[in-house]
Design goal:
By secondary structure, the chain is of the alpha+beta class. It is built from 20 helices and 28 strands. It is elongated, with a radius of gyration of 32 Å. Mean pLDDT is 84; it is low at 225-232, 341-352 and 579-597.
Length: 714
């Protein structure tokens, strides 16, 4: 017969749940207290005949006592514990961490898949498997699920939040989620399962992964130096994606806790401050078994559920492989509305207010798209390198599959980049692109600064740049670089500026840190440096507070230098070879005589160039990127000009922005922020990008003004 937990710890917990002492159990069994104490401490175990008496005393069957794979049903039942309001009158009107992310299933996919990669069990060499399951419940299936989560106990709290919904944001979201469930008679569940991961190990309250996810905010406990997360914010996307603020959890542990590993279950609810029946509640609530060790047995802790319970909660896992299942209750995808094109708006006939943020077919497609875009490298193997990740998405309605499970294939989602990475792993790269299908490789340096603000370079890490031709429309935007580090999640996506005319479409991959290989110098140090340079979204490298505090305010310039090295290397790799003097029409040109008009005499004295054309876009890091053309009158002397970037405001002086980069393209040179023009040039062109740290407000909320001022600059 299969047994679970050791008898002693199991019996001690059952006594707490039943509200019995060791002495009381000994009296019921007509044994000495010393005998019961010996069972608890593991010095002995009861005889089979005594097991039957123990089962009667605990109000359970003898099979449960023998197998010990679940708790007895006697004692304190599973319930909701709502954190009481603060005694000082303080109020939390929502979890601030959830505001770091939008209600977007693509953001959810990025954060949850990154967390699963970080918790992958590496000893067996297998990838972590992640499955996303969308499940729409209606009718009896919805009623059964609401009964399982004790909806009648929750409803007064949701009603209190809805009554105050007009006063704050979280309340309005929750109110809309409850109304959608009742008015449309449906509820969307989104479950994220991972396998071959560590699971939520550790105590309910003490330091550990369980407490970091379920009990705490802004705490990140990662398993390795190449981990993607560092802020402890990623888990907030789970609750942000739930219109009801409710997530249920079932974890299979890689390290036993209380002698058990399977079906560790708990739920967490995130609501704003509310008042129910005259009692104030602070915000969060937990779904679990009352902890006998807490005052009045009020605090709910995780419990070891039976198979029937996890099935009713839609938390059944497909195997006993370690990992965790997160069930988002009331999932919605507000960001999907922004993905609809103008053509869709004009032709679909959808009226205002009719868009559905809970369309599971659309959510399925957006999940597949995001996973293929952000994790193609983690799903790619070759040579001796194995994939780190396998991921799939499926959709159900009342238990019936309506969208078949789709395994995300990196070679389909990102064919060119997948080809490039495999060539690198298999050692088939070349120094220069000469034939179709080739992959060129080049090392680019990242000079790591000394920590603590000291001047100098700690060491030079050699990142790996891969470039190959693009694959039709299946690659998405062309001429882009995907940058990634240890866990192989795409961190940064950026275009390449100032490409030579006639460049064939290409795709590029930059492997930095541990992604560059085990033998790459200073790989771990590069991981630490770049991880500190990532914001909570982990979608770029740049200036952050942690980077400034641990290194220096100018440390981000090392990343800018890496970007410049990468762009220069790409321009060199994709440039077409120059023709010799005997190729093309050179010989014909020399044989022709073309009569030209005499040049007009240039006016004496200095002339002032004029800004003629300006193109400006917002970059990935929120900076303004500009390409400007200048018209130059004829003259003996051309006055140097200083480009000045400013923000357009309604009143007062225009705030001036600093330049992070100012580059001459043609007809001029840049010297200390001043444009010096080539003698005889009639036109000039330059490019620049502003320093985000000098922006007083978000770029998307502003307009740019560019002026050319005569002077030498500073």
């Amino acid at each position: 017969m299969e047994t679970g937990e050791e008898f002693g710890p199991w019996l001690a917990r059952q006594l707490k749940l039943a509200g019995k002492t060791q002495a009381e159990l000994a009296d019921e069994l007509q044994l000495t207290r010393a005998a019961v104490s010996a069972w608890i401490t593991g010095r002995s175990t009861p005889r089979p005949t005594v097991m039957t008496d123990i089962a009667k005393a605990l109000g359970t069957d003898v099979g449960t006592v023998h197998t010990r794979t679940t708790d007895t049903q006697a004692g304190l039942p599973v319930t909701w514990y709502h954190r009481p309001g603060y005694h000082d009158g303080g109020r939390d009107l929502g979890n601030a961490a959830a505001f770091a992310f939008d209600a977007d299933v693509q953001v959810l996919a990025r954060e949850t898949c990154q967390n699963s990669l970080d918790e992958r069990l590496t000893e067996n060499g297998r990838p972590v498997r992640v499955r996303y399951t969308l499940h729409e419940l209606t009718g009896e299936a919805l009623d059964s699920f609401r009964e399982a989560i004790l909806w009648n106990d929750l409803f007064p709290h949701y009603s209190a939040v809805s009554e105050a919904a007009g006063n704050q944001k979280v309340g309005r979201v929750v109110d809309a989620g409850v109304r959608d469930m009742y008015e449309k008679g449906r509820l969307v569940l989104l479950r994220v399962d991972d396998y071959n991961a560590s699971g939520l190990v550790g105590d309910d309250y003490a330091d550990g992964k369980f407490a970091a996810v379920v009990r705490r905010q802004l705490e990140s406990l990662k398993s390795g130096p190449g981990a993607g997360g560092s802020y402890g914010l990623g888990k907030a996307t789970l609750w942000a994606t739930s219109a009801l603020g409710l997530v249920l959890i079932n974890s299979t542990l890689s390290v036993p806790h209380e002698g058990r590993t399977e079906r560790r279950v708990i739920g967490r609810l995130e609501l704003p401050w509310r008042e129910v029946d005259g009692e104030p509640y602070a915000g969060p609530a937990w779904f679990g078994r009352p902890d006998p060790d807490s005052p009045g047995a009020m605090v709910a802790r995780s419990w070891w559920a039976d198979e029937e319970t996890v099935a009713r909660l839609h938390l059944t896992r497909e195997s006993d492989e370690p990992g965790t299942s997160f069930l988002i209750v009331g999932a919605h995808d507000v960001a999907s509305l922004e993905s609809r094109s103008e053509t869709d708006d004009e032709s679909s006939g959808v009226e205002d207010g009719d868009e559905d943020t809970r369309d599971i077919r659309k959510m399925h497609g957006r999940l597949v798209q995001a996973l293929g875009r952000d994790f193609w490298a983690a799903m790619t193997g070759g040579g001796s390198r194995l994939p780190l990740l396998e991921v799939s998405v499926r959709a159900f309605r009342n238990g019936k599959e309506i969208v078949p499970e789709k395994q995300v294939d990196p070679s389909v989602e990102q064919p060119a980049r997948t080809r490039a990475l495999r060539a690198h792993y298999e050692g088939t790269t070349v120094d220069r692109l000469t034939e179709a299908g080739q992959v060129a490789a080049r090392n680019v340096p990242l000079k790591l600064p000394l920590s603590g603000g000291a001047h100098g370079t700690f060491g030079t890490h050699q990142a790996v740049l891969l470039v190959t031709e693009a694959e039709g429309d299946s690659d998405g935007d062309k001429n882009q670089v995907h940058s990634l580090r240890g866990n192989r999640m795409t961190v940064k996506r950026a275009g390449v500026q100032r490409l030579p005319l006639g460049t064939n479409p290409f795709q590029a991959v930059l492997l930095v840190g541990e992604a560059a290989g085990e033998t790459a110098p200073f790989a771990k140090e590069a991981e630490e440096f770049l991880r500190a340079a990532e914001p909570p979204e982990h979608d770029r490298w740049g200036q952050t507070e942690e980077l400034t505090l641990r290194w220096s305010p100018s440390a981000y310039r090392r990343i800018s230098a890496l970007t410049a090295e990468v762009n220069n290397a790409i321009r060199e790799l994709v440039a077409r070879p120059k023709r010799t003097s005997r190729e093309g029409g050179e010989a014909v040109r020399k044989a022709l005589t073309v009569r030209t008009r005499p040049k007009a005499k240039a006016p004496a004295g200095p002339v002032v160039p004029v800004l003629d054309k300006l193109d400006a876009t917002v970059g990935d890091d929120g900076e303004w990127r500009i390409t400007a053309e200048v018209s130059i009158p004829r003259g003996d002397e051309i006055v140097p000009m200083v480009p000045v970037a400013q923000l357009d405001v309604r009143s007062g002086g225009r705030p001036k922005l600093d330049w992070a980069q100012l580059v001459a393209v043609e007809g001029c040179e840049v010297e200390n922020g001043t444009l010096r023009f080539t003698p005889g040039a009639r036109r000039a062109k330059f490019q620049g990008s502003t320093d985000v740290t000098s922006h007083p407000v978000r770029t998307t909320l502003t307009r740019l003004v560019l002026e050319l001022r005569a002077g030498k600059g500073e």
